[in-house]
Amino acid sequence: MNGLLVIDKPSAMTSHDVVSRLRRATGESMVGHLGTLDPMATGVLPLLLGKYTRLAQFFGPMPKAYTGAIRFGFSTDTYDADGIPVAPVATRLPTNEEIQAAAALFRGQVEQTPPPFSAKKVDGKPAYKAARRGETVMLKPVSLMIEEFVIGEREGEYAEFTVRISSGGYVRSVAHDLGRALGCGAHLARLRRIAAGPFTLAQALTLDEMCALAAAGTLEQSLPHPRTLLPELPATTADTWVAGRLRNGNAVNLPEFSNAPLAKVFAGQRDLVAIVRRVAGTLFQPIVVLG
In sequence order, what are the residues at sequence separation of 6 or more whose Cβ sits closer than 8 angstroms to the Cβ of residue 258? Predict the structure, then answer.
C-alpha cells in the first residue's frame, strides 16, 4: 500500500507504537512518520506508507499548531505531566496579568533550549538516554519562530493555550520557560497537535477507524489523492514511453516544466512514477522512482 495517512494519535502511545499498529493492520512493512509526537500528546501524526516513504525528504520542515494546558506551581524533569517534580510547589501562583506579560516574551523569534528528555542528539546519541541515566545533559539553544502563543485566564493551577511554532520547537520547553520567567515553575499538562504543515485533524483517522477500513480493504481509497501531496511541485501525466524511461532511471524531456526545478510525473491519475529534477533546459532526471 502506497500513500500518506494522517492518524489522530491517542495519548499514552509513542509514535513508534502507532507505526507498529499500522503495520499489523495493513501488512505494510514500510511505514514512516513525518515528525514524532510525545507519548502524552494526542493529535495529528502524518505517516507515509510503502514506496511513499521515499518522499519524506521532500516534505521538509513543517510548522506545527497545538492546543493544550499549562500547570503552574512546579516544574518537572521532563517538562510535562509525565515527569517527576523537581522544585517545591510555589506558595503563590501568578496573576493573569503577570502570565500575559510573560507570555508576550515567547512570541516571535526566540532562543529555546530543548528538554533534556528529548530526541536531540548529544555526541551522536539521543539526549533522553543520558537523562534517564541521571546524567547532566547540556543542549545548545536553537533559534525558532513562535508565530502565535495565546494563553487564557488561569483557572486554579491551569491555563489553556494555543501555539503555532516552527519545526524543531518544543512546547514542553515553552511551558517550562514560562514558569521559570514567572518564578513559580510550570509544566505542560496536556497537548494536542491540531496541524502539522498542511495536515490537520479534519484529515485524521483514529486508530480504530484505520483498523476498520484496513479490515474492510478500503483504507487505500480513504487516503489523500496522490496528486494532492507536495502541491508545491508541478505535476504531469506521462505516456507509456516516458514512464518506462523514468522507471529505468533515464532522463526525459519535459518541455512543460522549463522553469521548474522539481516535478511529479504520473502514469494515469494516481500512479506516481517519479520525482524528477531539471538538469539542463527541459531535460529532467528521476531522483526518486516509485513506479
Answer: 281, 282
